[in-house]
Write a structure and sequence with these properties.
The protein is an alpha/beta fold. About 40% of the residues lie in helices and about 20% in strands. The chain is built from 23 helices and 25 strands.
Length: about 700
Amino acid sequence: MELPTVYSPEETESKWYPLWEGRGLFGSRQDSDRPAFTIVIPPPNVTGSLHMGHALNNTLQDVLVRWHRMKGDNALWIPGTDHGGIATQNVVEKILKKEGKSRHDLGRVKFLERMWAWRKESGDTILHQLRKLGCSLDWTRTRFTMDEASSRAVAAAFGAFFQKGLVYQGVRLVNWCPRCCTALSDIEVEHEERAGNLWHIRYPFADDPLGGIVVATTRPETMLGDTAVAVNPTDERYRGVAGKKLKLPLMDRVIPIVADAAVDAAFGTGAVKVTPSHDATDFEIGERHHLPHERVIGFDGKMTVRAGRFAGLPIKECREKVVAELEALGLLVKVEDHRLAVSTCYRCATTIEPLESSQWFLKTTLMAEAAAKATEEGRVNIHPESWAKPYLAWLHNNRDWCISRQIWWGHQIPVWYCLACGDYSEEKVRRIREDPTFKNESVKSLLREGSPRPIVQAEAPTACPHCQGKDLVRDPDVLDTWFSSGLWPLTTLGWPDETDSLKIHYPTSVLATGHEILYLWVARMVMMGLTLRNDIPYRDVFIHGIVRDKQGRKMSKSLNNVIDPLDIMKKFGTDALRFALVSQASPGRDMQMSDDNFVGARNFANKIWNASRFVMMNLKDFKPVNIPVADRTPADRWIIQRFTDTLAQVDGFLAGFDPSQAGRALYGFFWNDFCDWASKWRNRECNQGPLTNPR
């Protein structure tokens, strides 16, 4: 057999994957007596298409899986996709908007039909692209976070948490995105620094309009909901003022001055306004001093009726009017430039509003302690180890997780309320009936707060177990996407059933992922696995960096620096893309990529092709013979030893989760030893006799 003189990556690579998949080479065996090696794919969103981050992550997983498969282990790599709650719903809502419709025009049932139709048509795009990348996933086990088995597992998990007293419903301050119209957990919020202002405003004493206290704030519009002004009890400037009354400007309300240690005396004037409904620190101050709550910003990002004459104004417009009126009244003392931290939605970058809302929460303190202990005791190992410290710090400072979301695409919370035996007046029932989709968040609060005994079960009840009434309403919220993906190692192996796959492959072996979801996903999987199965979900967490451009910038469409892996595969070949990524994947570090990296990797692929072609051209009449070591030539003994040493190096590097060094070891052996020194040695032996030292 003679290979073509020119290596054509696309032509060569395209024939192999269908052959591998057709022969079932990627599956594991239930009856194998070999050690199991299992990886579950970090499920990409159904909205996604292959980007360089996916290419890196999945190439590294493929390297590990193929390595263990070649060692004879019972290797399994499970594929699947995530329903991507907010992101996916936004895609379909944009389509509806072009049609002049909203999800509320369709209603929940019809809207979800549209969602599933979109999912069927477009949701598996990235899985086909992973085949193009050469990923050796067991496609017979493909899962989706909203398939029937996953939905059953999610309901079972919610029920188990509820029975353990870990799930509860309450009215608390949450991160609210006015654009996505939903609450977000703390780690779904991104923080950025922006140029802003610090407004100094005089709040007059109730009994002395000419006197007063000057407070400094970055958000003057929220003063409409102030219920106190706070000072630090150790601040000498304000000795004796606690307990006095102030006249709240613009609202004609009297509010108290309170002393609280949470106040930073070095900020602004040392006196701060307290708005419990719109700031986390203020909420805690309000709880300690039993202050009333005035919600003046609504879930739609506009001022509520509690804002008086400013009701209905968008936040920015309200701010402008508030500042103008304060200035006209002579209460605006000064305005300073100020750098401030702004919280934004990780999905749409809209500024987050801290708002009081009725939500479902998961108590995570004990769960997080157990997860931290698993790493501290060496049962869950983080690679590189430098990521263990921030991981443990997050677990030790964990807060309860807001798990409910105000969207429709997702796992609807398996909770029902009985209107017959709950505390529902005729007026409350009327309001609930008039808003069946719970577009008004306050109506949803009425539903939840009126039921002392919510019905929690996987299937819809036919009647209330307490009064046998049939007037039941299901909780309208869905669970956070990360709730279902946090169960991924369990659900992909058949939990809550005690399946053979669960017995063989759980705990899984390795989780490979980027550091950006270390808390969103990695930590939560450990917490949920330990709570629901009393076992860790994986033994090792392999953290890799992100792919940046050659200037070190994060890739984005706005910078026009995105490298499309599909384009790279077409231009340089899949092997070149994969080898370039692996050889640059130093543990935990971001990598800078450009065409130069792929050119070098393509040249290496060409080298392998040409060397193989040279060998095959010289195999005529060749018959394999087992020659004793003592009878082998120095060149043969040397190259075999170098090959053996390289294999040991590669094994060691991969076992230590350092694929870049493994790639470089292979490159050095093949290019420098096999193709350079070995050929020189062989030519010298043929022409002049053996060399004494190949170096």
